[in-house]
Design a protein that fits this description.
Blueprint lengths: L1 E5 L12 E5 L3 H6 L1 E2 L3 E2 L15 E5 L4 H12 L4 E5 L1 H4 L5 E2 L18
Parallel strand pairs: 1-6, 2-4, 2-5, 5-6
Antiparallel strand pairs: 3-7
Length: 115
């Protein structure tokens, strides 16, 4: 199932353990600022994304177009997905953080033992 949501609704998903927020921007953009708890999956790593279908996915990119495209594909595979209209640029909430990506993040196939 696919649904679009306004950026102002992102805050309600930030600390929800049943939700995986996915930032689809490149690593440098993510490090400059992202939604708290978001998993960074740049376009070149997208095929490695293997989230469990028991979690809702909330996707965002820079402006919303790419995340909507990815959300459509994932919804077609049976995932429950929400795409943020306007992307990160539209977000004005309180949960913006900066910093580097963590290795071995949840939901990414990797040699480090991701799912």
């Amino acid at each position: 199932m696919l649904e679009t949501i306004p950026a102002k609704e992102l805050d309600q998903y930030v600390y929800d353990p049943l939700v995986l927020i996915v930032d689809l921007r490149i690593e440098e953009e993510y490090e400059a600022g992202h939604i708290a708890g978001a998993l960074n999956v740049p376009p070149q790593e997208l095929m490695g994304l293997r989230p469990g279908k028991d979690r809702m996915l909330v996707l965002y990119c820079g402006r919303g177009g790419f995340s909507l495209e990815v959300a459509r594909r994932l919804a077609g595979k049976g995932y429950q997905v929400k795409s943020v209209v306007g992307g990160y640029r539209a977000y004005r909430g309180k949960n913006i953080v900066t910093g580097k990506r963590r290795d071995g993040q949840i939901g990414i196939d990797s040699k480090a033992g991701g799912h």
